[in-house]
């Protein structure tokens, strides 16, 4: 018999279950990791290489995908995580935001070809996105066209550029990729950045979570 468990439903914590030190989750790759390294010095830089765990006297750094980090904190596997606000919203988990680092600040927005500025007048539209939960909540608002979502793992611009979909919901920072693919920024859905989140009920933990957070933000 095959049983599949998603990270969102993880309940097996391994040797971290009895850990007395604070467990800090950080991205294992990407531009946010490079900026997070400035908060923890060489610790994250070393852990963010081939090693996905690094132990210090006061805390443990674990490296995982940015979109998995909210689930690790929500399930108690990490005490603190540094990840994008958009990933927390997409995961739909209840975490406590402690600090906005300002890193990788951008918008999650609606983009499409220049001629799609009147998209609200259509009865039906197709949208590609790697943020299906965010997009679904947005298009579920009254008065918006009926929407069919195409869930992709990246490069959403391709699907609008080739006419496979009408619009995309994607991260928008400099606008260079969108412009290179003939897309215009139509509307902001949410503002996001790299932030420090604590697990639910973190104040009830005997660990020095607040001290580690203070160290990261000083």
Automatic annotation (TrEMBL):
Entry's EC annotation: 2.4.2.17
GO molecular function, one term: ATP phosphoribosyltransferase activity
Residues of the ATP phosphoribosyltransferase catalytic domain: 65-216
Record-level GO BP terms: L-histidine biosynthetic process
Annotated catalysed reactions: 1-(5-phospho-beta-D-ribosyl)-ATP + diphosphate = 5-phospho-alpha-D-ribose 1-diphosphate + ATP
Organism: Nonomuraea montanisoli
Keyword Transport: no
Protein's UniProt name: ATP phosphoribosyltransferase
Localisation per UniProt entry: Cytoplasm
Enzyme class: transferase
Gene Ontology cellular-component annotations: cytoplasm
Record's keyword terms, sorted: Amino-acid biosynthesis, ATP-binding, Cytoplasm, Glycosyltransferase, Histidine biosynthesis, Nucleotide-binding, Transferase
């Amino acid at each position: 018999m095959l049983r599949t468990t998603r990270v969102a439903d993880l309940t097996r914590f391994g040797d971290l279950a009895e850990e007395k030190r604070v467990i800090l989750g950080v991205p294992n790759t990407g531009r946010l990791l490079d900026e997070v390294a400035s908060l923890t010095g060489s610790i994250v830089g070393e852990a963010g290489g081939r090693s996905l765990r690094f132990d210090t006297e006061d805390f443990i750094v674990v490296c995982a995908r940015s979109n998995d980090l909210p689930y690790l904190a929500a399930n108690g596997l990490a005490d603190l995580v540094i990840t994008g606000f958009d990933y927390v919203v997409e995961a739909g988990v209840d975490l406590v935001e402690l600090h906005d680092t300002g890193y990788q600040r951008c918008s999650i927005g609606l983009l499409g070809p220049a001629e799609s500025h009147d998209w609200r007048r259509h009865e039906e539209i197709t949208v590609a996105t790697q943020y299906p939960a965010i997009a679904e909540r947005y298009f579920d608002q009254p008065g918006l066209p009926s929407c069919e979502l195409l869930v992709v793992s990246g490069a959403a611009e391709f699907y609008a550029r080739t006419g496979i979909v009408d619009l995309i919901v994607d991260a928008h920072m400099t606008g260079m990729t969108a412009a290179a693919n003939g897309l215009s920024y139509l509307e902001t859905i949410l503002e996001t950045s790299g932030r420090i989140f604590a697990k639910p009920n973190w104040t009830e933990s005997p660990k020095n979570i607040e001290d580690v957070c203070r160290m990261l933000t000083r």
